[in-house]
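User: Before I run my own analysis I want an independent prediction to cross-check against. Here's the chain; please return only the structure tokens and, at the end, one sentence I can use as a sanity check.
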Amino acid sequence: MPPKRTPMTAVDRSWLRMDTASNPMMISAVLVFDKPIATSRLKLILNERFLRFQRFRQHIVDEGDKVYWQNDPLFDIDNHLHRIALPGKAGKNELQALTSDLNSTSLDFRRPLWQIHYIDNYQGGCALLIRIHHCIADGISLVRVLLSLTDKTPEPGSKRAFPTRAQKQPSSSIVGRVLHRALDTTEAATQQARLFMQAVRDQPNYPLKLASTASGVAVDLLKLGLSPFEPKTGLKNPLSGRKQVAWAEPLDLAEVKACAKALGGTINDVLLCATTGALHRHFKASKEVIPGCGIRVAVPFNLRPLNQPIETLGNQFGLVLVCLPIEIADPIMCFQQVQENMNRLKQSYQAQVTYSLLDLFGRGPDILERRALDLLSNKASAVLTNVPGPREPVYLAGSKLVQPMFWVPQSGNIGIGMSIFSYAGTVQFGITVDKAIHADPNDVMDYFRDSFEALSHAALAGRHESKKHQSA
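Assistant: Structure tokens:
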């Protein structure tokens, strides 16, 4: 009897086709723990919580016009879980070098597309370096799957940080959820077109809303197609395929919130402004002319409700192009421009448009997708993700997760990926850069912190001056 197989969705097939030697389509993570984890316990948890998703036991069968997921009859977890140790001092530099090396290497397409490297004796504990192909699922879903391996307390059998069993959502909140338009990825991105249509059908003015939605989508599709290519900068060099990875020491989330409150914006606005300032500092340090119109980054926008447990994998997100005004040196003025750009995007349908385009490209010939991908990737200089994590520390097999970092892949000719992840009162910031792009990832990490501190100082100083004038 032949192994069970299921057709790959058109959207997932799009991400599979994007895989190239210079840009492997892998979502990767580095999870650092305070204590070693027994590999026997790790295997037990993986079997119970990770491999419950059949996708991680399946490999790809590509028949040209059709692509399938097929159960691997020879599946063995030992082909995917490897135990290694770092050389030398086994510190952060060595871990970053290993992550860079593995992120430059494609996965084995003969087997299910994931790998975990267990790293012994890292800073007195251990680390997990995880790589999963993007065609299996989007980054937000995979982060939630990985966090579902953890518990809220060190004791075994305690409540999971992210339960995966389905829970019925109250029907009374559907309309409110789907009509809540927000680009901030820390909020549930409930704008998926199918849910929107289901909700507005129950409204008396459904035809009017439908016409308005259709015209909005058409306008955003036209804007996306007509938007100019990115300016020629050192961030858009031809790619070598060799990755360099770095991450910063985490920010205090309370400080980020205080800055956002002082400026009357969101945490997302503050972090995007800090990212903008980091790139401004990079251009100044490299003595490169700063584009007068800024640069754009592609931001994945979740289309799966965050309060809905993960039952099935797959890609359910769109992309939006966010303009970063790197030409503005003043931190407050930069923040105001970032906030204005974000508010404009909150009223757009870009995420649904790009999701629909990926679905369309996945159904058509490969050459069509390649040309469309080249077109879209010429409209962004980097990919930027911002994913919410647990508010309290979590534990894997009794070991506390002390620092998590995640990266999504870049597509086409985009060679920079930046990631922001909130966890247990901190904000983690990381970057991956193709070696052909002349940007030192560790320097950019320092620039990010410098940029945030400059914005925070200006914001809090301005609030202090405002209170002083009010009391006078």
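Sanity check: Residues 5-147 form a domain with the Chloramphenicol Acetyltransferase fold (CATH 3.30.559.10).
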